[in-house]
Automatic annotation (TrEMBL):
This is GTP pyrophosphokinase rsh. It comes from Novosphingobium rhizovicinum. It catalyses: GTP + ATP = guanosine 3'-diphosphate 5'-triphosphate + AMP. Keywords: Transferase. Its EC number is 2.7.6.5. Pfam families: ACT_4, HD_4, RelA_AH_RIS, RelA_SpoT, TGS. SUPFAM superfamilies: ACT-like, HD-domain/PDEase-like, Nucleotidyltransferase, TGS-like. Residues 383-444 form the TGS domain.
Amino acid sequence: MLRQYELVERVLEYAPEADEALLNRAYVYTVQKHGTQKRASGDPYFSHPIEVAGLMTELKLDQQTIITALLHDTVEDTLATIGDIEQMFGPDVARLVDGVTKLSKIEAMPENERAAENLRKFLLAMSEDLRVLLVKLADRLHNMRTLHFIKSEDKRRRIARETMDIYAPLAERVGMYEYMREMQLLAFEQLEPEAYAIITGRLAQIRNQEGGQVDAIAFAIRQALAESGLNVEVAGREKHPYSIWRKMSERHVTFEQITDIMAFRVLVDSPEDCYRGLGILHQTWQMIPGRFKDYISTPKSNGYKSLHTALIYENSMRMEVQIRTRDMHRTNEFGLAAHWAYKQGGSRPDGQVGWLRDLIEIVDASHDAEELLEHTKLAIYQDRIFAFTPKGALHQLPKGSTAVDFAYAVHTNLGNAAVGAKINGRLMPLRTRLANGDVVEIIKSGNTEPQLTWLGFVVTGKARAAIRRAVRAKERQEIAAIGAKLLDEIASRLPGRIGKKAITAAVGRLGLTDEEELMVAIGSARLSDRQVMEAIAPGSTAELPDEADWPMQERAISIKGLTPGMGFHLAECCHPVPADRIVGLRRPDHKVEVHTIDCLTLASGVDADWLDVSWGERTTGAVGRLRLVLYNRPGTLAEVTDIFARSRANVVNLQMVQRDEPFGTYEVDLEVIDLAHLTRIVGSLRASEAVAEAQRV
């Protein structure tokens, strides 16, 4: 583990202007916060963030990135907060730490959802600042180096699979091949332990049998190039074990059938020397046709530049040779990190990360965890082809891409409007697969939309995500239109006309986001008619007896708890109705007063006897009082009385008690069956555009 002074000295070697005190404070802070926490290896937990910071110094990254590496686990695993980080180390570091920190709730999700949510958060944070990606990749690399200390095989395999599927490809996409290769090797060891043991064993066997053959070939290449006046460095190695395994799996061949196990790297001074060296090697040894690739004139999307060729050495031995400049080599091994621009005034890397915008679009468009993982893997993986717009703009696409994939690569709106394509000047179907160097012109129309059938032939994650989003949006519009018609039919069953405010209130009661979501929920039958009615007008679905069954009030009311024949009356201060919780007040020479349990005037009856009373079993019918605030405009009172009539409530008294433009306040006494009946009426009144306020008094 790096000591404090060693870490600081590393940073000051390449960034003498760095804030030494701030770096020391961050080191001490992470040691103090993680305290006695231990890793699975038994090492102190703070050794992990310190080692991650060490990896960042190897890439010569700025001090904010080093401090972020030191603090990246403090918020997740200690009592520290983002606010604490911001106060001590500034908003830039706090933002970076927040981007790297994994939310603890993600760990409780099912595997695919967890991976998807982790990836979603990661990509969104990465889009704001790519230093988040660099720290996260270093974090994952160090975790993979210590993965073997975890006792649970399932957990080791899960972490290895996530590394292989997400983090290694991301490292490749930003050109960090050193990180990618080591991640793949460590993950391969966990996921395919038998294959790993066999291949590494065979490579060691070849190394022992052939002795210094790799060195001998490297010397021969160096000598051939040096004789032509080139200043070169040549290094040879066996191919990466995981690369060999993947080739065996894809081609269905055995280890013995892999002929180009040896690979050599040639470093020269200039791009011109790369091509000179290539010509010399092709003159010295036989080239294998179809194996030459020029990534200098046409770099990979991550900025990778090199010439690749395959040659036949003595005894028909095949070997792969990569030729590049020394600057290219550093960029190829460490990608964006090799030429990070933050320490030179805060500028950001350029078009090398254009693919990141596609990933963010995929995050926005993906419907669920499965889609997000599928589309993102499509965007990260796959070999590339190069196609051009008529104006010469270059777009890199996976092999097998079609004109539709190309259209979406240019712009999502162009893909959505595509109706045809001209490829190299010829009109071709949209499903036509593109070849390297094709010039593609997309023909568009303003009256078209993506077709579901396109999903049968597109290959890019961006295209699939955009098509699915467009198709879902169209389906949503159609379902919402059905829902709007159904809502009109449901509303017609309620007393009175339903206003805009009632719909807005219903959206809130149902926990939905907007009116469109309500229409979709109705149209897709996620909500029943009864649920919608109750949300628009609470109490409106209460069951009412047939009109013929309504008993007359004077015969229907009975009160339990009173001596037979004892007189009573319902208090006019609170107007109790059947189903209200009630209490009786008894005073000398007075009938028993029946009040609701929450009546405010009960306090004045402290000198009276309180009786525990309740409604009789078949009691129905009583007078309830409402206070209504109506808009003072023609027709409002008629609309309110229509609600009473349609609710089958008899108006006993209606009186205006206050007039305050533009409102009028009324008190209404209604003969109702019970509390449910009264509640239903109040709900219908509140849903009406004529009523500003309705409440029981």
